[in-house]
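U., I forgot to send this yesterday:
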Amino acid sequence: MAIKERKEREKQEMRNLVIESATQLFLKQGYDKTSIRSIADDIEYSPATIYLYFKDKDEIFYVIHENAFDILDKHLRQHDGIADPFERLRAIGRTYIKFGLENPDYYDLMFIMRAPMEQIKNEEKWKAGECAFGYLLTTLSECLEQKRIRQADLHVTAIMVWSFVHGLVSLYVRERMCILMLPDDTTREVLYSSFDLFMANLKM
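Result:
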């Protein structure tokens, strides 16, 4: 193997090691309590070594942020085979909610924390976010074309749908659903039922 290729492989391996460690620390103790030093201690390298690969903590979490969106996108696209766009939209919404409920820390980083957005501003495009949102747009466009949902502007409808499911998940992730004073399983069913009611009102 050429020296250049070996160095590139070693560089990627180190980046992957940092990302893996940072991801696990984030999931265990949260974004604010995870530092460059704690990541360095976990992988048994000096903080200076990490700075050779990432400029700061926000850049590391931007990569985790993008990886999380890739996971979400794969979950959503499992519904490609549903021919009826309205039923596909319903499946996408329920999958989105399920992802948020089962991955609250990831969801917090993806949709609530501001930190990753600072790094995104430095990028030409928000590729991961656009991919997931694009899938919603495509499905909604089919719904509108086939008159499966109430007619309205595509982007207005997309933001309405996204805002609704995001609101449900955010209330749960931020532990505001405790106001219902219900067991967790029942609370989750309330979320899904609320989404089903929303879909029923959206349908033509």
